[in-house]
Structures are given as structure tokens and as C-alpha cells.
Amino acid sequence: xxxxxxxxxxxKRRDMGEADRLxxxxxxxxxxxxxxxxxxxKPTSSKTGxxxxxxxxxxxxxxxxxxxxxxxAEVLEPFLPLREDLLRGAYxxxxxxxxxxxxxxxxxxxxxxxxxxxxxxxxxxxxxxxRRAVRYYELHLLDMLGFRPELQRCVVTQELLLPQDxxxxxxxxxxxxxxxxxxxxxxVPLPLATLKLLRHLQRTPYNKLxxxxxxxxxxNDSERIMHGYLRYLLESRxxxxxxxRRLET
Length: 249
What we know:
By secondary structure, the chain is of the alpha+beta class. The protein is built from 8 helices and 8 strands; from the N terminus they run βββββααααββαβααα. The strands form 2 sheets. A 5-stranded mixed barrel has the order 1-2-3-5-4. The protein has a 3-stranded antiparallel beta sheet with strand order 7-6-8.
């Protein structure tokens, strides 16, 4: 077996046998991978407390033919508010579920995605506008994975969009103008205010968005568009969406 040392963020964990845990890690140089934390459920284990969800750890992984072994784990950033606040934790669960569903364990470098996830968990742990952080995460994750929604031109006519209410096509992956809508089915309304917000989030560094205030209707509408697009791409609904909605009602 060879070993690798890496920073990692814990996406999932499942109990295995009587004392072990199988954890799904996301790493900057090796992407997503599963590793078995032997004895992690024992109170005396050195890994107890170091394999919590959403935690950033320093990991020593022994790679095997059938399964990797998490030989050592040390917490670097616990992101404690994500486990102490139910709503913050629910949004964090949504972000890691989305990443898990949209990526494979392919042992490929993923530095940009790892940095985006790490920064998003930090924002969810500290900021008040959780939905702003999540919409930014969705748009930039889609961009990194090759599913960037087209928000500048009509995906049917290829013309630049005018400043007016538009439509969105999940199947075409972008905005459809009123003119293009005459030739396209299965569209959903996209108000101009929502389009402006999505464009701003897509093209602006996050540190330039700190003072951005978003009203509830625009938040709700941008969420509707993004959840619909993601549901189309994944061909199913993310489980964490329903839990978040129950918390917010």
C-alpha cells in the first residue's frame, strides 16, 4: 500500500461493522474518495471527533486495491457553527450533497472545487445571508463542472438579451428570450431582477458581494431557477432541499 497525506473535507460518513466508519472525503489533489476509518466509533480511538461531517482535516490515507484506509486524521477547521446551528448545518449538507451527486471518485486534481467548498463552508458558518452563499456556490460549481448556465445570450437565437423579463430552459441550460420562446417548449419564467442577480453572482468575486442585499422575492425566485436546473441535471431532487424547506417554514 502507498500512503498520501492531504487536506480533506468530510462529505459523508457511514457506520461499518461494529466500530468502523466509512467516510467520503474531498481532497484538492485527488478529488473525491472513500476511506475506512477503522475503530473510529470507539470512544478511545484517536480518530473519534476527527471524522465529523463538514470538518476540514489533515489526513494520512493508505491506498489499497479495494478500499483506502484513513490511517490518521487531525482536525484543521471544525466549522463548529455548522453542527451547532440546525439551519447552517442543513445548508452545509445541501452543498456537500450537491458536490457528492455531481462528481465521481476519479482521483483527479480538483483544487478549484476544493477551495470553493472550503470557502463556502466558512461562509455558511459565519455569514447571515446563507442563501447568497449557496447561490454563489451553485453557480460556480456548475461552471467548474462544465454546466455553466448561459445568462448573457438567448440559447435559442444566440442574440444578446435585452433588459426585460425572460425565460429559462433547463434542457438548453440557459436563458431564452421572448422571441426565442416562440420556438421552444418547457420554459419557466425568469424575471429581470432574478436574471440580474444570477449574472452578478456568476461573474463577481465573492469578496465584492459582501454588501449585496437581496430581497426575499428575488431570493426565492433565484432558488426556484437553480433548484429546477439542478434537478434536471441530476434527474432527481436533492434530499436536503426538503429538510431546508421544513426548517424555513
